[in-house]
Structure formats: structure tokens, C-alpha cells
Amino acid sequence: MISEILQGQLITTGIFILSLLIIRAISHFTITKVARKNGINEARIRLIRRYITVALILVAILIESFVFGAKFEDLALIFSSVFAIIGIALFAIWSILSNVTSGIIMFFNFPYKVGDKIEIHDKDFPITAIIEDIRAFQLHLRLDNGDLVTYPNNLMLQKAVTLIQKDAIDNLDEDDGVDAV
């Protein structure tokens, strides 16, 4: 009797894991296709694919605990305790979470890409720079004088930004080739 129950759970687990792997492959393919169509660099594509993989693993752990007989009350107690601890910890580091969330939003809906020259309209510290890299927490902006500025993702979504020139890095490279001739 016990082996039949375990066998059923293992078959269900196998089917579920196979389904999750297919969902993961489809989501990774879709994210990559959309990102390349929009000119998003490979580092950002890998980052979002990691987020999707982690989310699927967490969902898998939750569903598998039900498959192997965990009760909702037991899981509710565990999750409420874990989320209380995480909530207290994340309250202390809310700005990091804000930047990661902004990075995800910027991945899917951001009109600028690496190489564009932008102007950030900040009253205290206006910036005109070329986007050199877009990371999970911040953007790397290269100023005209060559300085590198890291700018938090959450501020990028809060401030007004003007596109000065598309593909400014490409144009700089072309200008350098013309000067060398």
C-alpha cells in the first residue's frame, strides 16, 4: 500500500517536473526572442531568465509539498513565519528591492537601450550621458568627460529622461574611424 502511494507521488512528480521544464524552456525562448527584437543585451536577458527559473523552482517546491502530503495549515504556518522574517529583513533593504523591481520593469518596458545618449532631468544633479550597461540594480552611464556614473534603476523610473541620440556609442566609433583616416 505504501509503495503504491509513493509510486503515484513519484509519477506525479516526474510529470510535474517535465511540465515545469517545458514551461521554463518556452518562457526562456519567448523572453530571449522579445529581448533580441527590442535590442536588449545578453546580460539582461540572462538576468530575467534567472528570475523566471527561481520563480518556477519556488512554485515547484510549493506544489511538490502538496503532492507528498503536506497540509495547507502546515505550509501556511511555515510561509507566514518565513515571510515575517523576510519582510523585516526586506524593510531594512527596501531600496535594493526597489532597484531590482525597477530593473525587471525596465527589462520589459524601457524605451532606451545600451548605447543611447540620454539626459536625466534631475534638479540637483542633471546628467547627460551614454548608457553603457543596464544591470539588476543600476545603470552605468558614461559622461562626456569619461567619468562612469552608476544611477539607481528606481530613480531612472522616477525622473524625466530625454533621448538625446540613439546608438551614440556606434556613432562615436564611426567618428573615431573617420578621425584616424
Molecular structure report:
- With 181 residues, the protein is α+β, with helices and mostly antiparallel strands.
- The protein contains six helices and five strands; from the N terminus they run ααααββββαβα.
- The chain has helices at 2-37, 42-67, 72-92, 94-108, 153-158, 168-180, and strands at 117-121, 127-134, 138-143, 148-152, 160-165.
- The chain has a five-stranded antiparallel beta sheet with strand order 4-3-2-1-5.
- Its main location: membrane.
- It is found in: Membrane.
- This is Mechanosensitive ion channel domain-containing protein.
The fraction of residues in strands falls at: 15-25%
Structural class: alpha+beta
| Shape, principal axes of CA atoms | elongated
Helix fraction, binned, reads: 55-70%
Distance between the termini: 83 Å
Multimeric state: single chain
Number of strands: 5
Largest sheet: 5 strands, antiparallel
What is the ordering of alpha helices and beta strands?
A: HHHHEEEEHEH
CA radius of gyration: 23 Å
**Nearest-integer average pLDDT:** 83
Q: Going across the major beta sheet, what is the strand order?
A: 4-3-2-1-5
User: Which parts are unreliable, with pLDDT below 50 for 5 consecutive residues or more?
Assistant: 176-181
